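Hello, quick one for you while I still have it in my head. A protein chain has come my way and I'm curious about its shape. Can you walk me through what the tokens say about the fold? No rush at all, and the record is pasted right below.
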Amino acid sequence: MKVWHIFSRAIDNFGDVAISLRLSYQLSTQDHCAVILYTEFNKTLQRFFPNLDITSNVFVSELIEVRNIDYVFDDIGI
């Protein structure tokens, strides 16, 4: 299965995360591929995912995996 890795840093705290999430979900549903989104884990992201623990480094939703961009992962698969 194809895997997309999307990297996003917030500039205005809301719009950037929303665009990244929308792109991630769109790729996941239209291209039927796995998507891993790397972004900041903060209260803005928690608005989209109320179950998100902002002290964790990985969150899996129904269609995408969200990873904390500030954490070093050894298994990114690139």
Notes: The CA atoms of residues 28 and 34 lie 6 Å apart. The chain has one domain: 3-68. The mean pLDDT is 87.
